[in-house]
């Protein structure tokens, strides 16, 4: 009996580790989403004329962390709500941010963008 148990137990451990390693990470929370773009705030409110490396890295991580349309929609709504409370937010700089950071985004970044369009396209 012992000779059957060890290989079976080993197989179970390998299967559990394989499943754990291939699970998709949990979606970003709104707080995580906002914290990723927080380094861009000085640029987006005209306090600086150049983006920072942490800003572009955060934007890139946000794009990579939201691959599905549903995740993009959630992130869009979160950020749109957040920027509605930021005085001096420069919508033109926000729309230009992916280009400045050399990151491809398949929808405009704008406080006026209808986030529901992400799902429609």
Protein architecture, described:
- Helix 2 runs antiparallel to helix 4 (53-65).
- Residues 4-23 have low confidence and may be disordered.
- The radius of gyration is 20 Å and the shape is globular.
- The chain has helices at residues 2-22, 30-37, 41-44, 53-65, 69-83, 91-100, 116-120.
- It has seven helices and no strands.
- It has a single domain, classed as Orthogonal Bundle (Hydrophobic Seed Protein).
- The protein has 121 residues and is mainly alpha-helical.
- GO terms for molecular function: lipid binding.
- Belongs to the plant LTP family.
In brief, what are we looking at here?
This protein has 121 residues and is mainly alpha-helical.
List the helices and strands and how they pair.
Layout: H1 2-22, H2 30-37, H3 41-44, H4 53-65, H5 69-83, H6 91-100, H7 116-120
Helix pairs in contact: 2-4
